[in-house]
Design a protein that fits this description.
By secondary structure, the chain is mainly alpha-helical. The chain is 69% helix and 0% strand. The chain has 17 helices and no strands. The longest helix is centred in the C-terminal third of the chain and has 39 residues. The radius of gyration is 25 Å and the shape is globular. The relative contact order is 0.15.
Length: 472
């Protein structure tokens, strides 16, 4: 009888593990966790007994000292590194590395791999970047907020695709592919925006050294090196060089991702040939009479060789993307949300995004909100219409203009990339740090409100359009 509760307990644990695995595989799981982290960050930043601990933790200095007798080496991490900067400048490198792997996969073998496949989503992505930037600039031209034009230009692929998956067959598959490809192209444009407009003053000698290291990695790849470990040390060196050269260090992730090989060490013919040899050896090893249970010593040898063979037959970029995706989606992005979404509401006007535009500070909230909710769908739809009208691209199969516009509304879900750009905006020589913080906080609130509105609006429009089309 004592075994019965143990059996049931083990069964419950097993079922819990299965439910955990199935939850992680849902396309909306990342979005749910991010929303929970946003809510938690807002609470931590505003509750009287947690806000001081929260902000002090983010501003904790992280410096690893490695002192030499002559003082030549006295630090490892930069002297001004805080917990917040560690998350944004180091952990997010892994996020951008994964984004880079995804972009490369789609460009080489996916939805952006041919002109015909890529042209409409890419043109739509440009429209979805330009229109929000124009709207933000019109609202904030000539004010302290004008440099934040890049905030509403990005689409959060996790939330957008997650909502599409929840809506199911109400959206044609072709439009799901269209929005996914658009979001990937959008990520690439956003990365270029960060690199070109939100870095610091460029230190050309250090940048030149970084380019030399990158060229060395490219040569190593050209010579056929496919072992992942050989790319990691140059990646760390490039991160340091980018950090001190004024190029935002997260670009390291994208640059190195583009250099990771997409070809496996063993092709199909070589794989089958080696599998046959190892399998024959495994069958022979089974004939060896030993007292050991399966696998015995010789069998373990062949099984290890088979495991190594299968690993080397999968391209390094796919292996890295598969390993890093769960870490990025369920660790790094939630940590990023916890660190950056915690806005202390010292000014209730943050929520009044339609207030009068300040002649000095402008209105970050209004610019971001209109950019996400209006600029994104209008830019995506108008650019798609022009591409189709001039026969540069073709309308996705079974799609209609009302449904395409409804799906384009989901492009207004900015979140991760928008918050990231917000953390880089409004700083500069001669700008009061208090003003910078005020503008960034107002921007984050507007991103949350705009993304929520875009998500709800897009979902409602998709549901309404699907019902109308079903009747006809």
């Amino acid at each position: 009888m004592a075994l019965i509760p143990i059996y049931w307990w083990n069964k419950e644990v097993h079922n819990f593990k299965i439910s955990q695995d199935s939850f992680r595989k849902q396309p909306w799981a990342n979005g749910v966790i991010l929303l929970a982290c946003v809510a938690l960050a807002m609470l931590l930043a505003n509750l009287p007994f947690t806000k001081e601990i929260y902000h002090n933790f983010l501003h904790t200095e992280l410096t690893i000292h490695i002192a030499s007798p002559d003082g030549f080496i006295d630090w490892f991490l930069p002297r001004d590194m805080t917990m917040e900067k560690f998350i944004n400048d180091i952990l997010m490198v892994i996020f951008f590395f994964t984004v880079g792997l995804e972009i490369k996969r789609e460009v080489v073998r996916g939805e952006l791999s041919s002109f015909k496949k890529a042209i409409l989503p890419v043109i739509a992505a440009f429209g979805g970047v330009v229109m929000p930037a124009v709207i933000f600039t019109l609202v904030n031209h000539g004010t302290e907020a004008s440099s934040g034009w890049g905030i509403p230009t990005a689409t959060d692929i996790a939330f957008a695709v997650g909502i599409l998956s929840i809506l199911g067959d109400r959206v044609p598959v072709s439009l799901k592919v269209f929005l996914t490809a658009l979001a990937i192209a959008d990520d690439l444009i956003a990365i270029l925006v960060v690199a070109l407009f939100y870095g610091g003053n460029i230190n050309l000698p250090l940048l030149a050294v970084a380019v030399v290291v990158i060229m060395f990695v490219a040569l190593m790849k050209k010579l056929g090196e496919k072992r992942i470990g050989y790319y990691m040390v140059p990646a760390i060196i490039v991160w340091f060089l980018f950090y001190y050269s004024g190029i935002h260090a997260t670009m390291t992730g994208v640059v190195i991702a583009m250099l990771i090989p997409m070809d496996a060490r063993y092709n199909q013919a070589k794989f089958h040939r080696r599998v046959k040899i190892l399998y024959d050896g495994l069958m022979e090893a089974e004939q060896v009479q030993t007292a050991e249970d399966f696998p015995n010593g010789p069998e373990r040898y062949y099984l290890r060789r088979l495991s190594s063979l299968t690993k080397k037959t999968i391209p390094p970029s796919y292996r890295l993307e598969h390993k890093l995706n769960p870490i990025v989606n369920f660790v790094i992005m939630p940590i990023f949300a916890l660190a950056n979404a915690g806005v202390e509401i010292t000014d209730p006007s943050y929520f009044n995004i339609f207030k009068a535009i300040d002649p000095v500070l402008g209105s970050v909230g209004l610019g971001v909100f209109l950019g996400l909710v209006l600029g994104k769908p209008l830019g995506i739809t108008l650019a798609s219409w022009l591409a189709i009208k001039f026969k540069v691209g073709a309308m996705p199969s079974r799609a209609t203009w009302p449904m395409l516009f409804a799906v384009a509304c989901l492009g207004g879900i900015g979140f991760t990339m928008s918050i990231f750009v917000d953390t880089l905006s409004f700083a500069g020589p001669g700008i009061d740090p208090a003003v910078t913080q005020h503008l960034r906080d107002a921007g984050k609130i507007a991103i949350l409100l705009g993304s929520l509105t875009a998500g709800v609006l897009g979902s409602l429009l998709i549901t309404i359009v699907a019902k109308i089309q079903k009747k006809h």
